[in-house]
Amino acid sequence: GALFKKTKNYSFISCRPDLVGDAVGQIVELSLKRGFAKDDIQVLGAMYHGNGGVDNLNDIIQEIMNPPKAKSKSLEAHNETFRIGDRILQLQNNPEKDIYNGQIGKISSIDEENSKECMVAKFDDREVTFGRKDLNDLTRAYAITIHKSQGSEFPLVVLNLTMQNYVMLKRNLLYTAITRAEKNLVLVGDPRAFEAAFKTPGNDRKTGLASKLRKQLGITVKPENVQEPESKPKEKTKPKQPEDYILTPEKIYSGEIDPMIGMEDIHL
Known about the structure:
- The chain is α/β, with parallel strands linked by helices.
- The protein has a single domain (10-199), classed as P-loop containing nucleotide triphosphate hydrolases (Rossmann fold), CATH 3.40.50.300.
- 19% of the residues lie in helices and 24% in strands.
- It has helices at residues 20-33, 54-65, 171-178, 191-199, 209-216, and strands at residues 9-14, 41-45, 74-77, 80-83, 87-90, 104-110, 119-123, 126-130, 138-140, 143-145, 154-161, 181-189.
- The protein starts with 8 loop residues before the first strand and ends in a 52-residue tail after the last helix.
């Protein structure tokens, strides 16, 4: 199905953990310049804290996608600034408002003086009104955790992982993240972190996730003990060396480079 379709447009940008925020910001700016709509771009991370955590990334991306405007209204809550036009994420189920954990919406209006109805946001073309106490269950959604992204797909996913996420680096986490990308995928961070995630089974021992990941990323592995038929004419091209077929973590990063993302334009 669509979940397992091959994603070829991906690239890998290696950078130190303290530069992840800068790198992600540059990727977002480049993507916007090259024609991606703001809502097409979704940044994913494993954790909330740290340079590559979604809290810091939301600060960076909000300044790029929705900077403060003169006389524009905003709300402050739990160290976050919410502005009209911001993409937001519901963090808890709220049956009363008919919105649920993981739903993404967009702020359409703000009333700073009205504590009971201080914000209106659209979720799937339906308007939902929030009071100040409801803001505790909302966060900006330019960057979200991989866990919260389950069930959604986006035209361009920017996934960052570093060794600071080490305890969470499992194969099923990586698979969930890369399958959020409908077409374009950019991996950012520490190659060792992606390698660790690829090599570490989570709860996926019986689901064949390793082979699904290889398929998703276009990695081929030479089948063992397969002999070429003798009648086949010899190829005149230079034979490939065995290492071309052996799966290595580096193969994860060796797909076609997404033409929309120029890695040469990322300066770290």
